[in-house]
Write a structure and sequence with these properties.
single chain, 49 residues, 73% helix
Length: 49
């Protein structure tokens, strides 16, 4: 469970590093953090069926 969190976080950071000015990776603010948490939660729910 925690490994998946780390994997999602690592991927997000990797994309942010590759495309720092990408519209998909605006500067992190509270709303963005919440959205990412929800996306990670939904991804986990999907993967765990």
């Amino acid at each position: 469970m925690q490994n998946l969190d780390l994997m999602v976080q690592a991927l997000s950071e990797q994309f942010a590093t590759i495309w720092p000015n990408s519209p998909f990776h605006p500067p992190l603010n509270v709303a963005e953090v919440e959205i990412r948490k929800r996306k990670a939660f939904m991804m986990k729910a999907f993967l765990l069926g």
